[in-house]
Structures are given as structure tokens and as C-alpha cells.
Amino acid sequence: MEVFRIRGGVPLHGAAAVAGSKNAALPILAATILARGPLTLRNVPRLTDVAALVELLEQLGVAVDADRDGAGRCLRVRTIDPLPSFSHHEPARRIRATFCTLGPLLARRGHAVVPLPGGCRIGRRPVDLHLKGLAALGAEIRIEQGHVIARAKRLIGARVSLAGPSGPTVTGTANVLAAATLARGRTTLLDAAREPEIVDLGRFLIAMGARIEGLGTSTLHIAGVEQLAGCDYCVTADRIEAATLLVAAMITRGSINLTNVVPEHLAAVLELLAEAGARIDLGPDWLRLIAPQVVRPIRVLARPYPGLPTDVQPQLTALAALADGDSNIRDEVFPQRFAHLRELARLGADVRGGAGEAAVRGVRRLHGARVAATDLRGGAALVLAALAAEGTTTVRRIDHLDRGYERFERKLRGLGARIERLAEVPAVGGVQWPVSAPQPEAVAARNA
Ligand code: EPU
């Protein structure tokens, strides 16, 4: 296990290039199962979630080779025939996104066995809408011993709504959309997710030969085709990483220039940061933010796109902790996503609530402490708070952060942050302390 040691209080300044999007790359990688020819995927972020999905694809008979291009990692992918239809290996249990292989496997092979993804620190994460959508396309689905077993000789186009109690489902839309590309006839997906990651998946499927209309709206029309071919595709920029870096500049009262970003995807975040006092300039693929000395309190309402993303709610909660007044935070997508409140409190934040809502009273300063990441974005919130806190903070369980941020500490160091990745020594007498210097082998491996 590794930890971050952060010495806070330094305003971040400088430039950073945003990585490829995790939540676009994962369903796109899963959808490579559909292709009959070789594929090249560019701008794929180097993340442990991506590595786990690649491992799973390899076990499924998809050959994946990595090489680097200027813009990030480039993966060359080739499916073999016949593809095994199962995806019940170890990596599938580790990350939820492997559930995105369900639709593609079913469409391509007519049979899939995928473990039900378990619960998660950010709340209830059912998959009923995924199953409803695939069943509407004619799949026979049953659940046995924690696995979804789905069969369909050939899926058949249908009209189906993907609306859930808190809006559309993102990966559910990905699963049903990918499956419908090879169904016989036309499919209409109502109440589909409009997230940029779904638009990116749709564009990728179109590049493979799929016929899809309505991307970016809540109604998708798909005309099924007989087969999909290989293609060369560049994954869109990660709007959540971009937002996290903007908040890092904001919370430390610094300034940042981001490149390789799609500002349009960040409209709701930029509006909120501007209301909090940021000066923002933007171009077609860049953004500049200059933080104010005094951050105004904020009202966060996390909703499906084009609303404010739930994946930025914890980071904005950290920002609110140092705002000049009382802020209110609500998350309608994952009302249970507040595990980070307790850890923020250890750093001196005045935060209350948790059931869908939090009240944050801004304090003048946070102070360093030992905290643990509770989940990916909750972990990001702790790192941001630590960057602004006085003194030294140790953040444990940074494996959560490696799932979704490519070399986070390096990017932050490039902006002037004092952050190191250290090995955590095993517990002695119940206490774990980081060793005082980076472990050369671990660091070399990480930097490779
Ligand atoms: N829901 C249902 N039934 C379903 C599926 C979802 O009721 O069958 C509900 C959920 O309980 C939740 C809401 O619908 O309240 C939205 O869940 P959704 O299915 O959209 O979430 P997801 O697809 O599992 C993706 C991202 C998450 C992100 C959410 C919301 C990926 C791999 N994951 O999850 O990303 O928070 O959409 O935008 O794309 C992250 O990156 O940190 C992360 C958690």
C-alpha cells in the first residue's frame, strides 16, 4: 500500500494537459468486443481500472497491445473468433465497469455470464435498468449465484426507456446502446444518458460502422447492422480530471491553464466556479482559471448531464470547506455519496449531513492530519483539501485514486504542489506510518 504525503499551503500555478476520459475509455474498451477488425484506441488513460478491464478482455480472447503516442497511451486491439462468452474472471469482480461487457458479449456471441457488481461506498448501484433494456431487446436473463446469465440468438430492436428513480443510467445506456448496434431492426432508447462519455462511445460505435442518431439527446435511434469493423479512435478528454484540477487551483488560490480539454463538457462546473469568484477564459480546447483570494460560498446540486456531475461533488465540498460563508451540497444521483465528510472533518472542515445533502460552514484554515480515501472522488477531495491545509497530511488508501487519476501526484507536482507517493510500512501495534523517503523500486515502477 502507498500513501500520499502532502505539505499544504502552496498556491498551484502552471499548465497541465488533461488525460483521456476514464468513463469514456471503459465502455469503449468493452465495446471492442463487437469489432471484427483491428482497432486502435488513442488517448487511453493509464489507470488501474483500465488495466483491470484490459486484463479481462485478454481473458476473453481479445488481444491488446499498448504503445505510446504523443497524446497518451495508444492501445491496439484485435478480437479473435470464436470469442469465449464468459467474463467471470477475477478482474471482473474488482471493477464495476467490467459489467459493460454484458451488452457487447451478448450481441456478439449470443451468450454472456457476468458477475453482478457489488455494493459500493458511494451508495446503491443496482443494474436493473441494464437488464430491463437488454430483456426488451429479446435477451433471456436470469441471475444465478451472483452472476447475470444472458442469452439471445439474435437481439431484436425495440423501444425501451432507461429512466431510473434519479434519472438515466450512464453505463446502462452504454450496455444497451452497444448491444443494439448488432440487433435486427431499429431500437429506440428513451430517457438515455446524455453524458459526454456516452456521446464518445456512440461516436466510437459509429466509427466501427454502427448507425446511431440522437447522440447527446435523451432519445437514441439505432438501426442494427450485420457486423462492425475495426477503426482508429481517440478517446475524449476527462472532464472530471479537468474539473478536479480546476478546483485544485481554486482551493489553493492559484491559477491554472488546462490543455486537451473540452470546455463545453464543463459548462456547469465553470458556471459554479465563476459564481464562487473565479476568472475563467477559454478556447476550443483550453481553459484558464485564476482563483479569487476569497471564495464565495457555493450551492452544489449534482444531477445527470448537463447538470453538475456527481463525480465532482466531493471536490466541490472540499472547496466549500474553505469558502467565505455557508454552502449547501446536494447529490441527487448518488445521495449516499458523502463518506468523505468524516475525513474532511479530520482536516478541520465544518461539515454536517450526509443523507443526500451536506451543510458546509467555511473555515479560515484547514490543518494537516492523517486521513484515508473512502472512494475515488472522495479521495480526490481529501488531496485537494490537503493541498490547501496548513501542515502535513497523509492520505491513505490511494489505490482508490489510481483507479481514476493518471499519475495524479506528478500532475500536481507540475503545478508546484508538494506531494509525494510513499510506501506505507506494515502496521505495527495498530499504527501505520509512511516511510520518510520514496521507495526507489516502487517509484520506478510507477514512473515506467
Ligand atoms: N440506477 C438504477 N438502476 C440501474 C442503474 C442505475 O436505479 O440499473 C441508479 C443508481 O442507483 C444511481 C443512478 O441510477 O442513483 C445513476 O447511476 P448510473 O447507472 O448512471 O451510474 P454508473 O453508470 O454505474 C457512471 C460512472 C460513475 C458516475 C455515474 C453517474 C462509469 C464507469 N461510472 O456510473 O463514475 O458517478 O455514472 O454519472 O462510467 C467515478 O468515475 O468516480 C464514478 C463513480
Keywords, please?
448 residues, single chain, 4-stranded mixed β-sheet, disordered C terminus, UDP-n-acetylglucosamine1-carboxyvinyl-transferase, Chain, binds uridine-diphosphate-2(N-acetylglucosaminyl) butyric acid
Describe the structure.
The chain is of the alpha+beta class. The protein is 30% helix and 26% strand. It has 2 domains: 2-19 and 238-447, Enolpyruvate transferase domain (UDP-n-acetylglucosamine1-carboxyvinyl-transferase, Chain, Alpha-beta prism); 22-234, Alpha-beta prism (UDP-n-acetylglucosamine1-carboxyvinyl-transferase, Chain). It contains 15 helices and 25 strands. Strands 23-24-1-25 form a 4-stranded mixed sheet. A 4-stranded mixed sheet has the order 2-16-18-17, covered by helices on one side. A 4-stranded mixed sheet has the order 4-5-3-15, covered by helices on one side. Helix 6 (170-180) runs parallel beside helix 7. The chain is globular and about 65 Å long. The chain binds uridine-diphosphate-2(N-acetylglucosaminyl) butyric acid (EPU). Uridine-diphosphate-2(N-acetylglucosaminyl) butyric acid (EPU) is lined by residues 23, 26, 97, 122, 124-130, 164-166, 169-172, 197, 310-311, 333-334, 376-377, 404.
CATH level-two architecture of the largest domain: Alpha-beta prism
General form: globular
Q: Which structural category do the helix and sheet elements fall into?
A: alpha+beta
Radius of gyration computed on alpha carbons: 22 Å
- Average pLDDT figure: 91
Number of domains: 2
